[in-house]
Amino acid sequence: MYVGMAGSAGASIRGRLRRHAKSKKKSKMWTHFSIFEVHDNVTEYEIKELEGLFRHIYRKDTRANMLNRQRSFKKLRKVRENSLKSWK
Length: 88
Description:
The chain is built from three helices and no strands. The protein is mainly alpha-helical. It has one domain. The relative contact order is 0.15. This is GIY-YIG domain-containing protein. It comes from marine sediment metagenome.
């Protein structure tokens, strides 16, 4: 599984897939892909949270995680580590 944001700063999904397909290393590591689009009213911050959630869910899956640089999501780790008393 690879989670990434395309469409920001001139990037596109097509360009990202082409770069990965031409890469000697990455082209052998993935077999398929899924694209999810969000509505215009979803902020970049919320998209980053969704990406973090997916990374966190798949963090221990070695096959899904080979291309991900970030393996977990700090905000979810904080929820796990903190006690309810520290929540405000």
